[in-house]
């Protein structure tokens, strides 16, 4: 076991510095086992990005070489060769996600609204009403009604 750890130390750190690699890790983490074909398909569908199969498969090979992925059979695919995270791979992805967390939080922070009545954070489907000349955000019409009755009491 010590030999494997020493071997791991000899390799360069895998860098995740672009959306293709980051989203590949998201997909690997969210579905197991997963095929390279599935990753390419989802990159195109979800991000509108056609990635080079060579780029994606080379990234998968480097993850496997570092011990972050292992081969796995995919039963619901005609491409039965797939990959799944190892324990080390799970730790690696968590580390990457925590590094990206601040960046992602900053990116969506400007889009978050707060319900004026209950204080819940809203990202999508905001109910707005103009009350006393001020446009306020609410999570639903019921909170807007409760807010109006609270300020009129």
TrEMBL record:
<protein>
    <recommendedName>
        <fullName>Transcription regulator PadR N-terminal domain-containing protein</fullName>
    </recommendedName>
</protein>
<dbReference type="InterPro" id="IPR036390">
    <property type="entry name" value="WH_DNA-bd_sf"/>
</dbReference>
<feature type="domain" description="Transcription regulator PadR N-terminal">
    <location>
        <begin position="25"/>
        <end position="90"/>
    </location>
</feature>
<dbReference type="Pfam" id="PF03551">
    <property type="entry name" value="PadR"/>
</dbReference>
<dbReference type="InterPro" id="IPR005149">
    <property type="entry name" value="Tscrpt_reg_PadR_N"/>
</dbReference>
<dbReference type="InterPro" id="IPR036388">
    <property type="entry name" value="WH-like_DNA-bd_sf"/>
</dbReference>
